[in-house]
Amino acid sequence: MGWVLALRTHVSFVCLLITIASFKLNGWDESVWLCSFFVFLSCSSSMLYNDWIDRDHDKRKGKYFTSEKEKYFFCYVVIFYLAQIAYCVYLFKINNFYGIIGLCMMILGVLYNYVRNFDLLSNLIVSLSFALTCLFAITNSYTLEGIVWMVFIFLTAYAREIIKDLIDMGIDKGYKRSMALRFGTKTTSISAAYILVWSMILLFFIGKIALAYSVPVFIYVIYLATKNVHYRQSKHSIDLALFICSLAIILT
Residue 228, by phi and psi: left (phi above 0), alpha (psi -120 to 50) or beta? Predict the structure, then answer.
C-alpha cells in the first residue's frame, strides 16, 4: 500500500488538471492529453525518487516502506523513470518544445533532492515544476489569462511548499535548510499567507466566474496560516483550491 501512496496520485492528478486548464485558457490543442499524462507520470516519478533518496530520513516520519525493501523499491523507481524517459523522447518527436519542457521537468525532479541545504531553492524548484506544466500550452499559442494562470500556479505552489516546511520543521533540523527553520513559524506562516493573498488576487484577472468557488478555500487557508496551527490541513486545502480552480476553468 505504501508503494501506491508514494506515487502521490492526488498531487499528480491536480498537476494533470492544471495542464488541461492551461490548454483551455491558451487555446485547445489535440496534444493536450499527451502532455497532461506526461505531467502525471513526471510528478509521480519525482515523488518516488524523492522517497528513495529520503528513505533513511523518512524513518523519522514513521515511513519504512522504502527502506524495508530497498532493492525492490529502487527497481520500482527505475521502471517509472525509464517510462518517463521513453515518454520524453516521444515528446521530442511530436514537438521539440514539448520535449525540452519534459526534459526540464525531469531534471528539476532529480535536482530537488540535492539542493536541500540551499535556503528556499528546493521550494523554488518545486514551484517551477508546477509552473512548467502550463508551458506545454503556451508553446503553441498564449493569452494574458494563460500567463496569469501560470504565475498563479507558481505563487500558490511556492506557498504550499513553505507550509510543507512548517509541517516537517521538527524532523528537518540538521537534514535540510528551510525558511521555517531559519525564520521561525510566525514569520514563515505569515509569508505564506501574504503569497496566498496575491494568488487569490490573480484569480480575478483570469476572467472565469467559476473560479470564485475557490476563493472561500483560499480565505480559509490564509486564516489557518496566520493561526500558526493546522499546517497539514492548510496544505491539503491548497491542493483542494488548485483542484477547484483547474476544474472550474476546464468546465466553464
Answer: left
Amino acid at 145: E
pTM, two decimals, is 0.89
Dist CA 81 CA 53 (whole Å): 14
pLDDT tens per residue, range 147-193: 999 999 999 999 988 888 877 776 666 666 666 667 677 777 888 88
Q: 194: helix, coil or strand?
A: helix
Region of 29 on the Ramachandran plot (φ > 0 left; ψ -120 to 50 alpha; else beta): beta
Q: Within 13 Å, how many C-alpha atoms sit on residue 16's CB side?
A: 15
What angle (nearest 5°) sits at the alpha carbon of residue 42, between those of residues 87 and 119? Answer: 140
DSSP 118: S
Q: Could you tell me the sign of the dihedral formed by the alpha carbons of 155, 10, 177, 84, in that order? A: negative
